[in-house]
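A.,

Following up on our hallway conversation. Structure tokens first:
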């Protein structure tokens, strides 16, 4: 039996996402980001994400294959936390759906500012963690996992690094930060480790990793005064 779905032009985006996800079975299923891009072709957000992943700085620092639009999803994660209120977060997928629509409302100038913000934070991450970190759990030790981007590490590090007001002071104390971060990544029973490895798209995981990272960054900024 053949089933056809007729979607009216005025159908809310949330309903469209729901329909796509319900019928997205069999064969080669679409990834969530592929669905987002398919439903937002008319806006400037799709071009914006594509342009961002083609930037040399993104390719060099992140080093992720953009197959199945994985790179675009990483960029969108950062942009979501920069353009939406965190109180709107229920699940990562829904948060990113909202962000895709929010980016479409931005002017070219506003999108350019957001792009510059991400490029700068990627460069800063290299200054802190070294040029081969790739936002992977191998930050902790070379024998811990492959140098493969951990999506949750990417969002929490880029967003929280961008929030640092005194980056020079932070760089002075970066050795403290790195040692503490390594300990968090090696302790498989810690809330932080669990928040980046299990159920990472849920609200508890998001709240936990951002709380822990912001706390560590604050301790790093205060480290000089304590010693």
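Then the amino acids I'd put at each of the 227 positions:
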């Amino acid at each position: 039996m053949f089933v056809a779905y007729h979607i009216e032009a005025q159908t809310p985006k949330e309903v469209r996402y729901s329909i796509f996800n319900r019928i997205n079975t069999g064969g080669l299923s679409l990834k969530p980001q592929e669905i987002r891009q398919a439903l937002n072709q008319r806006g400037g957000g799709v071009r914006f994400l594509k342009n961002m992943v083609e930037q040399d700085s993104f390719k060099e620092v992140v080093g992720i294959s953009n197959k199945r639009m994985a790179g675009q999803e990483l960029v969108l994660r950062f942009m979501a936390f920069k353009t939406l209120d965190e109180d709107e977060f229920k699940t990562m997928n829904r948060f990113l759906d909202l962000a895709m629509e929010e980016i479409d409302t931005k002017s070219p100038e506003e999108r350019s500012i957001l792009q510059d913000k991400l490029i700068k934070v990627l460069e800063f991450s290299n200054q802190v963690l070294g040029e081969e970190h790739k936002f992977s759990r191998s930050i902790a030790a070379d024998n811990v996992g492959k140098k493969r981007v951990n999506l949750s590490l990417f969002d929490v590090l880029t967003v929280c690094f961008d929030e640092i007001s005194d980056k020079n002071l932070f760089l002075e104390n970066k050795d403290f930060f790195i040692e503490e971060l390594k300990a968090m990544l090696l302790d498989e029973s810690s809330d932080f480790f669990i928040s980046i490895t299990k159920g990472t798209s849920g609200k508890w995981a998001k709240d936990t990793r951002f709380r822990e990272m912001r706390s560590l960054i604050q301790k790093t900024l205060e480290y000089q005064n304590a010693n």
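Residues 203-226 form the longest helix (24 residues). Curious whether your intuition agrees with the design.

B.
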